[in-house]
Amino acid sequence: MITSSAPGKIYLFGEHAVVYGENAICCAIELRTHVQAEFNDHIEINSVLGRSGLNFEKHPYVSAAIERMKEFAPVDGVKININSELPVGSGLGSSAALTVSTIQALNHLFHCGLSLEQIADLGYNVEWDVQGNASPTDTYVSTMGGVFMLPSRRKLELNDCGIVIGDTKKNSSTKKLVTNVAELKNRFPEIVTSILSTIGKITYCGEYSVCNGDYESIGKLMNINQGLLDSIGVGSLELSQLIYSARSKGAYGAKLTGAGGGGCMIALADASKTVDVSDAIKSAGGVPITTNITDKGVVVETKR
Ligand SMILES: Nc1ncnc2c1ncn2[C@@H]1O[C@H](COP(=O)(O)OP(=O)(O)OP(=O)(O)O)[C@@H](O)[C@H]1O
Ligand SMILES: C[C@@](O)(CCO)CC(=O)[O-]
Ligand SMILES: [Mg+2]
């Protein structure tokens, strides 16, 4: 039996734009998904969503990961148990953490010898298989841990600042939201391409601010990024309420993270302000989530 785990993630900048090759800065967080894999006489997948066999409706990412792993090993009889600290479908990369930890568990159970780069690439393929469109960002950062500029894969450092997360209700998947943006881009190609390109430029400016620890500028760039995400239809009333509430209590900046349409927002704040910002998120109807950035990517926790 193998148990592996992988971290979730947050975006400082660049979600959705990174699907079209623009820059993004993405950070792994300490909340993790844990996957246990053992040999079995058939395929069985157990999670908070229930029990199934190979089932692309109930467990699309695990089922797609098993299919991809069949290129390397005879994955016909395996039992997968999933436990996660990440809210499902909330923009914190729960699909990527699940995908990457599943691949790593099967990698070690069947002695495939896959490298971290190969795991990240396979994870990207799985998210693409399920969503019909994806960037390599979520699965790369969940594999490697840390803070990265994608697609260049430049590693960055982000220390000495507080990250406060607020969760809101969400009723749309990343697959649907990414599809919606593609449809908007098809309808207004010049306008949406210009917006996505501007988000890429925000990220480029943001990298300079991150490297210089200029949190005031990072916050202002996050706020501009949020306005552009709203313009392409991936915001929500609930997210806006939390975002403006966090900003009113002294956050450097606040924006949605991940695919949007609800789910999580993040606020960047000085350590002295994180309690006030967290209270503001709660008073605006959000569920505050406390976590930190982590350098710990996908790992094997136990082998028995
Ligand atoms: N703990 C879990 N157990 C089973 N399936 C899970 C779990 N966590 C995530 N999933 C799968 O991932 C899907 C959510 O992926 P989705 O990409 O929509 O959200 P996310 O990854 O949390 O957000 P984002 O992609 O914006 O970061 C769920 O519908 C489910 O199929
Ligand atoms: C919306 C998106 O940019 C981030 C989802 O966390 C999709 C992707 O990059 O695969
Ligand atoms: Mg996802």
Structural description of this entry:
One of its GO terms (cellular component) is cytosol. Its cofactor is Mg(2+). Its EC number is 2.7.1.36. It catalyses: (R)-mevalonate + ATP = (R)-5-phosphomevalonate + ADP + H(+). Residues 61-146 form the GHMP kinase N-terminal domain. The chain has 304 residues and is of the alpha+beta class. It folds into 2 domains: 2-155 and 294-303, 2-Layer Sandwich (Ribosomal Protein S5, domain 2); 159-291, 2-Layer Sandwich (Alpha-Beta Plaits). The chain is 41% helix and 26% strand. The protein contains 9 helices and 12 strands. Strands 1, 2, 3, 4, 5, 6, 7 and 12 form an 8-stranded mixed beta sheet that branches. Helix 2 (94-109) packs across helix 3 (116-131) and helix 6 (189-211) runs antiparallel to helix 7. The protein is globular. The mean pLDDT is 97. Adenosine-5'-triphosphate (ATP) is lined by residues 33, 47-49, 60-61, 82, 84, 88-96, 98, 138, 173-174, 258-259. Adenosine-5'-triphosphate is lined by residues 33, 47-49, 60-61, 82, 84, 88-96, 98, 138, 173-174, 258-259.
